[in-house]
Amino acid sequence: MTPINETAPWQALSQLAHTGRVQSIASLFDADADRVATFSREAAGLFLDGSKNRISVAALDQLFALAEAAGLPEAIKAMVNGDKINVTEDRAVLHVALRDFAHRTYHVDGEPVSPAINAVRQRMADFCTAIHRGTHTGYTGKPLTTVVNIGIGGSDLGPLMVTEALRPYWLGERTSHFVSNVDGQHLTDTLAQLDPETTLFIVASKTFTTQETMTNARSARAWFLEKAGGDEQAVARHFAALSTNERAVTDFGIAAENMFGFWDWVGGRYSLWSAIGLSIALQVGFDRFEALLKGAHAMDEHFRSAPLQENMPVLLALIGIWNRNFEGCSAHAVLPYDQHLHRFAAYLQQADMESNGKAVTQSGAPVAWATGPVVFGEPGTNGQHAFYQLIHQGTDTIACDFIAAVNSHTPLGDHHEKLLANFLAQPKALMLGKDEARVRDDLADQGVPENEIDRLAAHRTFPGNRPTNSILMDRLSPETLGALIALYEHKIFCQGVIWQINSFDQWGVELGKVLASEILPALKAEVTDVTHDPSTAHLLARINQLRDGQENNNED
Ligand code: F6P
Question: Which residues form the pocket of ligand 1, taking CB atoms under 6 Å from any ligand atom?
Answer without folding.
Answer: 152-155, 205-207, 210, 213, 268-269, 354, 506, 509
